[in-house]
Write a structure and sequence with these properties.
By secondary structure, the protein is an alpha/beta fold. The chain has 2 domains: 125 residues, Spore Coat Polysaccharide Biosynthesis Protein SpsA, Chain A (Alpha-Beta Complex), CATH 3.90.550; 106 residues, Spore Coat Polysaccharide Biosynthesis Protein SpsA, Chain A, CATH 3.90.550.10. 29% of the residues lie in helices and 23% in strands. The strands form 3 sheets. Strands 1, 4, 5, 6, 8, 9, 10, 11, 12 and 13 form a 10-stranded mixed beta sheet that branches. The protein has a two-stranded antiparallel ribbon with strand order 2-3. The protein starts with a strand and ends in a 5-residue tail after the last helix.
Length: 256
């Protein structure tokens, strides 16, 4: 299995902090947001390679980050034990010419000729749930999978994917950013696509699918393929604006 980490956004809601610096490399609790994700990924034996897709403006920042991680280990391979890491540049330079999350996903698949199952993750969340249990759920039922969490905040549900599930956790309905949420289940940006459905991503884009938010792909895919949900047990710290960044730093003891 390969991991594809989406890190090519321009994070305009965090300007000026992110005007010339990538959001996933902002520090929280003494390390970068991305470090938390990579530290968990490298413990998962099913993963043998992680691809981080960024843009031309921030590519050097990510390569410097990778070099710094390697320098902290006695030998460079110890920085990502069992997990090779590759940083790709999608060639964009601004929010106006961005490829979008789905465009970036397809870019990586084509650029690295990927034919394995893929775990797709956003790079701007600190996750406190087990990705291993998500992968185990997929291994027991190797169909496309999303993650879901119970979300009591109706207004927040309107800003995310929202799904209706059956008793077997099959996705019956998926709406990205609904005006009227259809259930308590919100969809964080963590997905598994089996290798057999990877051609569907290009099909989606070729048919004019929205390339931006990653949830739009699953909104379309669940009508073409059987999609299942993995219910998350654990916290997700979604860092999208100055307020959520300050709250994350407070949680990690940086701000009181």
């Amino acid at each position: 299995m390969k991991a594809i980490i989406l890190a090519a956004g321009y994070a305009t809601r965090l300007y000026p902090l992110t005007k010339n610096f990538p959001k996933p490399l902002l520090e929280v609790g003494g390390q970068t947001i991305l470090d938390y994700l990579i530290d968990q990924l490298k413990t998962i034996p099913e993963l043998d390679h992680a691809y981080i897709i960024t843009n031309a403006r921030f590519h050097e920042h990510f390569t410097n980050w990778a070099q710094n991680r390697a320098a902290q280990a006695q030998e460079s391979e110890q920085a990502h034990v069992g997990l090779r890491t590759d940083i790709l540049d999608d060639g964009t330079t601004s929010n106006d010419d961005r490829l979008g999350a789905i465009g970036d996903l397809q870019y990586v698949i084509q650029a690295r000729d990927i034919h394995d199952d893929i775990l797709v993750l956003a790079a701007d969340n600190i996750i406190k749930f087990s990705l291993q249990t998500f992968i185990n759920t997929f291994k027991n039922n190797p169909a496309p999978h999303i993650t879901v969490r119970s979300n009591p905040d109706v207004d927040d549900r309107k800003r995310r994917g929202n799904v209706r599930l059956d008793e077997n956790n099959q996705v019956l309905e998926f709406i990205e950013k609904p005006e009227k949420p259809i259930s308590e289940w919100s969809v964080p940006p963590f997905y598994i696509y089996p290798n057999a459905v990877l051609p569907r991503i290009n099909e989606y884009l070729d048919n004019g699918g929205n390339p931006d938010a990653p949830g739009h792909l699953m909104e379309w895919l669940h009508k073409e393929e059987t999609v299942f949900a993995h219910k998350i047990e654990g916290e997700i710290i979604d860092i999208g604006n100055h307020e959520s960044l300050a709250e994350a730093r407070r949680i990690f003891g940086e701000e009181q």
